[in-house]
Amino acid sequence: MSDVSAVKAALKSQVIETPSWGYGNSGTRFKVFAQPGVPRDPFEKLADAAQVNTYTGVAPKVSLHIPWDRVEDYTALTRRAEELGLRIGAINSNVFQDDDFKLGSVTHPDPKVRRKAVDHLLECVDIMDATGSPDLKLWFSDGTNYPGQDDIAGRQDRLAEALAEVYERLGDDQRMLLEYKLFEPAFYATDVPDWGTAYAHCLKLGPKAKVVVDTGHHAPGTNIEFIVAFLLREGKLGAFDFNSRFYADDDLMAGAADPFQLFRIMHEVAVNGGLEPETDVNFMLDQCHNIEAKIPAVIRSVTNVQEATAKALLIDASALAAAQRSGDVLAANGVLMDAFNTDVRPLLAEVREELGLARDPFAAYLASGNQERIASERVGGEQAGWGA
Amino acid sequence: MSDVSAVKAALKSQVIETPSWGYGNSGTRFKVFAQPGVPRDPFEKLADAAQVNTYTGVAPKVSLHIPWDRVEDYTALTRRAEELGLRIGAINSNVFQDDDFKLGSVTHPDPKVRRKAVDHLLECVDIMDATGSPDLKLWFSDGTNYPGQDDIAGRQDRLAEALAEVYERLGDDQRMLLEYKLFEPAFYATDVPDWGTAYAHCLKLGPKAKVVVDTGHHAPGTNIEFIVAFLLREGKLGAFDFNSRFYADDDLMAGAADPFQLFRIMHEVAVNGGLEPETDVNFMLDQCHNIEAKIPAVIRSVTNVQEATAKALLIDASALAAAQRSGDVLAANGVLMDAFNTDVRPLLAEVREELGLARDPFAAYLASGNQERIASERVGGEQAGWGA
Amino acid sequence: MSDVSAVKAALKSQVIETPSWGYGNSGTRFKVFAQPGVPRDPFEKLADAAQVNTYTGVAPKVSLHIPWDRVEDYTALTRRAEELGLRIGAINSNVFQDDDFKLGSVTHPDPKVRRKAVDHLLECVDIMDATGSPDLKLWFSDGTNYPGQDDIAGRQDRLAEALAEVYERLGDDQRMLLEYKLFEPAFYATDVPDWGTAYAHCLKLGPKAKVVVDTGHHAPGTNIEFIVAFLLREGKLGAFDFNSRFYADDDLMAGAADPFQLFRIMHEVAVNGGLEPETDVNFMLDQCHNIEAKIPAVIRSVTNVQEATAKALLIDASALAAAQRSGDVLAANGVLMDAFNTDVRPLLAEVREELGLARDPFAAYLASGNQERIASERVGGEQAGWGA
Amino acid sequence: MSDVSAVKAALKSQVIETPSWGYGNSGTRFKVFAQPGVPRDPFEKLADAAQVNTYTGVAPKVSLHIPWDRVEDYTALTRRAEELGLRIGAINSNVFQDDDFKLGSVTHPDPKVRRKAVDHLLECVDIMDATGSPDLKLWFSDGTNYPGQDDIAGRQDRLAEALAEVYERLGDDQRMLLEYKLFEPAFYATDVPDWGTAYAHCLKLGPKAKVVVDTGHHAPGTNIEFIVAFLLREGKLGAFDFNSRFYADDDLMAGAADPFQLFRIMHEVAVNGGLEPETDVNFMLDQCHNIEAKIPAVIRSVTNVQEATAKALLIDASALAAAQRSGDVLAANGVLMDAFNTDVRPLLAEVREELGLARDPFAAYLASGNQERIASERVGGEQAGWGA
């Protein structure tokens, strides 16, 4: 896509969904460091998400996490979102923080525990109905820590049964997005460890079930963009959870650890139709800002995804295809690298200007005084966090 | 399976297939060290495989590798195998050592190269017909070394097309076994990197297409026994390529690097029906004995697989199930570990004695003088090897 | 060491130190699941450690963690330990849970924070004086999450300075044990990532500074027993933190994930003099029993280490050396595997019987009723935990 | 270093050494694909290296590999180099391709084999004398494939002894550069697996012994720039072997797999004095161009290193230091990313123009017709390669 106006149009229409929990406190098993100004309820999280959207222009959707974002009145929450120029994105279930879920939720050996877990998932669909959310996002911490602890195949049976019940409950325009993760918090075997497992379940469930690729959930050496290309080819890529990692599921800012990988991913997205609205890929962030200021970190993550997208769109597609066809390894690689080596910040600054935004969202936000304002206003109450 | 006679019966009926190329020279990219007595043609490889079967009693099948084992007269080769008490196992294709395959075989951008590759695969089916081999085993070195080098999804299209043509050619009792590998010799993206990719292709091809799990082909941290359990649950596990590894695809003796992992794998095989004849899982070795004597190394590998199987069969299934159901993590793990910690060598010695074999196949082979005999007899000619 | 009585003597004299925090609640960043009967103060932790020692006979030492085990009166704590047949082992510092340490402790850019951190370390030496503890164990969570966040070499300078001040404070019979860790909770660069870094600092500090090998702190593929052999050869191995892991720092029971690795480690310990009292290697456990009962889990960990040690001691040293000298790869490996494949549980049962203990410590503890007793007695108050 | 003229001066004085074997054929254990025009002797390799220097202007040094580059008359070879505007760089020893070295070279259990290996190393010093090479580069494939195969600590003793003898032989201006590698071709334990091992040996040898960091020789997740910073701080970084990798030691073009990592490495080099001539860091490439044209691949690798260096030099040092001191994580990371996101190709084009070179070395080389010329001229004879 070498036509600059087409590139700009694509960048203007991109939507990046930010996670409500990214604005709250988070940490490692060793310590959660609290930060001044952190939201104390879902409404304040929406306000923070709105800041990100105000400065970037491409983040109008917010993922919720239940029960962290449970409120009395979802209509009020949805209305507040709309007032802020936002809409509710995916509803993320949480079946990993109740004491009953110590040995699993939907895959637990005890049917009573499984019932409780499925009921929570069904509640999430209710919340989708109430908020207009199109996506139920499922990540399970289910798994085992020790060999022999439970029956691996039996847990798959239970998982399949639970997913089928929830899938049945979905409305026509609602999707189920199934996430996979190789490790943590289950250490020996997670119940949905890889894309193959998620894909196999989604295939059996039907067209409304799709796979979520969280960029931090793979074994070292995994080629994530291959998975992206494969799932798009199969029509089974539902969403991304963008973040970055050096070793494990570090949940750092997207693009911070390996910007070249993010670019390669966005290249596969672009060439395989993933930016077309009808493909309906949800580009979400899923991050933990443990030591850095949260709103600015989300802004930088959004602009990192934009920059990777812009570079991917600047790849000279016909030159690339010609080099690939002729088996010219260095030429083909060179076409890709030319785009990656381009500084796209001026182009994105122009795009923003044309949208009536500041050229540099990060600087503009810092200059706005919002950070100081929330730090002074949001005093007292309990800061939002992972709730563990 | 706590009944000792049932355990013994299962051990007696186990079949482990050995690879013809395991008897030839192999090495790393740095050096192939030749060994005295190495076979100089496929017939001598059969003789070596027969030695392994003579001493272990459970290795009556031999995998061939084409073109390394190409002969004028496959009927003669098959007859020779029968005379030696062997039968021909899987036919392994090789589309990675012809100069035309530098940038791929069935996924190559050039249709002429793909044609050549598919023709080779079809020739392998002819050889199956001629030898009575039930299994076509496909491993592709196809992939790319550099980002942008070729179109990832396009290569999948070509792969699917090639597999479909070969699948059509299979007879009613012939299977296609598709292997996956994360890395090497393609460095950036292999075209069948993981079980998910192999599974998705096999699913589309039909019931005769199954997945091969090579224990050395995964990313670090991958739980292989999960994959085994999952594929058995789906009816899609076709075969193992057993070997062991510390970092990459080291192709060391099975059970040498992580005997506990091999035991866990055999446990999942056992509890998910993988030892039943009707499940038709082919237990193959795929190894390179670069620095150790080859026949003895294969014998040890076979006995390592037997020991892992015996331990898996000794697990107290009802105690395990009870502990799992009650959520007693330590008890369940303890049942598994009890079996692993058992010294099963006396049991296997008894099994062998009951089969009329020596109690210790490794020692018996060394005492037989065969190693010295082949070293003195097999002089001149060209030693068999990977042929690279 | 093929002489059984010598093996038994070595097993009887082995000492495994258990961690006070292993008896308290722990978890992942997602959730800490509380368990009934968990200690509410350091005195109750000592009582639990005494249970482990009562049943295993080889765990008379307990590591403390400051501030988790901070008490008013260390003399009282030490006296209580003695009454229970225990003594105080290593004092573990904690400079990772104070809000000031968000960006580091001894390597923090701000000298005031560094001062606070060093003062804490000096306090730990005071506690060593008060309790008779011989070892100051230092693990630093210090590091950075993002490239550029701080100056890597500058942090080394600050680390060196802090270590030097604390080293100076040590008494003649006190040691500093420096731990390394590749990842978590710092994600980009930890300040003591590997044994080389710890070794280089210890070398400069002097003979009282030694390296701690935590078996869960390495990159995938690292050969830990090589490090053990190398450090013993250099006289710089101070201690182990035993635990096991599948992917990251899972802190599972020692020997649970890879019993063969634990055996190989103990083999290097044994052949390089690490079991000799004068080598003064401290064999500690450092584990988190997130989902399994804690005292029984520690007992199993202790017996796992004992079993690995017993197997290592049973290796036929002269046969091994002969095979190694002659370059007989399979024979040498076979000698090692013979020992590993031996079921040493009967031998250890005998050892225990000769010590006046029950043959099976795990079963004996479960039968003792202690678990039920503490669950009913330890009600109210705040359960001990990681305190994060 | 924000002063553009200083940046340019640094870029002009940078020297990147290219490996003679990078111009010859190479491959994987599966296949070596020959390429047209590949050199047939060391003199032709020099001619190819001269091409790289002609177009990049920063590659006047060539590493030799003995015995691959063994010639009758080293004076003639050196003179030829000078005529081509080159000088001889490091002499790389090869003690891994002789049949005697199957179980090791300097660490082999047999003293006769060790003698042979040390003699080869001493011969390499003779060649240094003859060619004016300043550096003896040592990489050992020594190690073991199976647990128990040999005595880990004993092999360290033999290694230390061999290194000491060779170190003694060095002249005043000659250095020993010791390389480490975690895996391959030894699979279980390599004898110099990590920087810590190399560092410990170099420390004992003395000031002329320094460590080589090959960017492809680490475990996954290793922070290479930390090692670089640490070794520079210790005065023990002797050289780089640049290349890139996705999983193992892929030996791809430097900067191809992770350009951000290469930038981070060059940042640590720059801020820790590694670009100063007196630090004497040798910036070498060590790569295998298995499927891509070799001279152009080396040119791209050189320009990739230049681009990473340029970006590192453009980092606003005072802004970075200020942000680091104040603990502003996002600001500090932002300063680094600003430099990385800059397109430095125009700057490098200017640098080249000022040196009288073409702005784009890759394009200029391709336009020169040299590739076609060598393909037509270098026919017959035996192509140079790894010689395995």
TrEMBL record, chains A, B, C, D:
Organism domain of life: Bacteria
Single annotated GO MF: L-rhamnose isomerase activity
Cited SUPFAM superfamilies: Xylose isomerase-like
Gene3D superfamilies registered for this protein in UniProt: Divalent-metal-dependent TIM barrel enzymes
Presence of the UniProt keyword Manganese in the record: yes
Protein EC: 5.3.1.14
PANTHER family given in the database record: L-RHAMNOSE ISOMERASE
Protein name per the record: L-rhamnose isomerase
